[in-house]
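User: quick one, fold this
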Amino acid sequence: MEVNKMSVVELDKLREQITSIDQQLLKLLAERQQCTNQVAETKITHHIPVRDHKREEQLLVSLIKRGQGHGLDAHYVTQLFHVIIEDSVLNQQALLAARANPGSSLPLNRVAFLGDKGSYSYLATQKYFSRRPGELLEIGCQSFGEIIKKVETNEADYAVLPIENTSSGSINEVYDQLQHTHLSIIGELTHPIKHALLVTQTTDVNRIKTLYAHPQVFAQCSHFLAELGNVEVITCDSTSAAMMTVNELQSDTVAAIGSEAGGALYGLHAIKSNLANQKENHSRFFVVARQPVNVPLQVPAKTTLVMSTVQKSGALVEALLILKNNSINMTKLESRPITGNPWEEMFYIDVEGNIQDGPMQVALEELKNTTRYFKVLGCYPNDEINPTKIAAVTALAQDKQEG
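Assistant:
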């Protein structure tokens, strides 16, 4: 018994030491962030791009070598500093964007999104506006049309709209809404989607008789549903509505599919996780507002277009060649039927580029003259921060093993 008491005392001391080290790490990370903000100020003054991949590679190689000197694994150091560098890049981009759009910062950000607290759109909203100044006022809506209308009528300043998912594909209704609104896309974000089977009380999966979820969620978890067999599937307007319903029913035979974080807001817990067909499941969201934003040329940008071509052979190829000839990379091409015009389609295109850039301006003018209908839905900062890849990580890890 005495030995056990001593062990507990030693363990408590070690935990106190770890807590102290963690606090020091947080302080140092905050100091680092302040330095990167000063770097951003310099880049604004001298028109220097946010990212310097060569500098990032040199930094990572140096950190890996130093880390190995302290007994740290090369991949551990790499993953840790990928997160730190990503945070630095996003903070610098946000600072540059704020300077390029004076007066855009609001003391209160009124944001419309699908569902209520706990929905994936709610979680994406929290994530995006955590880097923006001002308080957040959440406005839950029951349809994409209602979300758009909230911003159009100035009941909300922004809308967060899911546009595509790596498992279930594009959300066509949102594309259709964007075509017929005067709102502009001002931002994007990618959010991981982790579906779990959520219940109010401990139960077995085999006892579940009824499932509640958004239609997109059911599509993303079709393999899991097939394994369940004879279960009633009831669609809801949002994942939050599904979780709210299960909370109200308080039955061990009903469940919702949604995120564990969202479920916790409704007193639900997961009895099975990772339900999506694709384990790497992510959704991309657009942030829209009444006015477009100016994206500084130092910040990597995307532009989303919508167009219809004339009805002749090779018309689409001709339009896409304009992008190729101006060295503009297309990242997405989506077609949608034009209502009332059988066999005719509207094309939605994402490209890498800033509408203030010379080649992009040339391409846009040529597309206007070539297509039958053409509209820029928005130019916005590219939120996909690709980690710097260095072959040295593998090489250094091998050197350590051989050494």
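User: anything notable?
Assistant: Residues 2-46 form the longest helix (45 residues).
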